[in-house]
Amino acid sequence: MGLTLSPILLDAGLDLAEVLVIRHVYIEEHTDTGLRGIHADSTDAEIIEYTRRQSSKRTSFPTLPPRYWVVFIPEGGNRARFWGVVENFGEVSNDGVLRVFEIGKTDHLADLQRRLVIGWRAPRSWKLRGTTAATYPVLGIADAEPIPFPGFDRLVLSYSQLVAVMREHRYVSWRTALSSVVGIYLITDTRDGRHYVGKADGEENIRQRWTAYATNGHGGNVELRALDPTTFRYSLLRVFDPSTPTSAIDIAESHFKVALDSRRHGLNRN
Known about the structure:
four-stranded antiparallel β-sheet; 270 residues; eight-stranded mixed β-sheet; 7 helices
């Protein structure tokens, strides 16, 4: 038996009972509502606006739709390509023709957007309960589009971005670049602005050091163990060739600790 949608939804933390799965169709205009449809080149904003408006005459649409809507777009025949997950915050208006909902796109399954393709077994049904759609087969997951490395002096990552950079295939060039240098990095706790100045030197490059942070949030640093890493922001202060003497890197580290006052008003203990 092949892969189905079920483990993908469950792995994303989505309760199947709290999921509505939608496959839109490409249409110029709905005759019952006059609502403008979507097409292959519709923007995300247009798809969200289209999704949040439902016909009041469609008695099949749930009176109280679930919290999460997993949205697909047509891929031809019985195929559907994943567009994204939106959270439903409730119905905000109903004029007898249109029901309008407040929805917002979430980060659920963000790495699979426009990559995941499933088989749609019920061509006449445009929406399904999560428990039903969970049995639908996965037909393919395309390789992620590679993301160009922005450069050492433009690199600023949240914790969730750091984890993605260290794990996902689309960031392979980033990991290659970070493996090629040692140097001084900065962690900022965005809750209070406190800084932690760290270094990667000797046999340890920046990628290796940051992989440790992505793994456990603190990288073994006593100063960071008790803090929530989800509010951390990571950047590079200065990079060096791996052949640079460790004494030169130590001098640079001390300079930035003084410049950023990270010992007295930050997170460095020494």
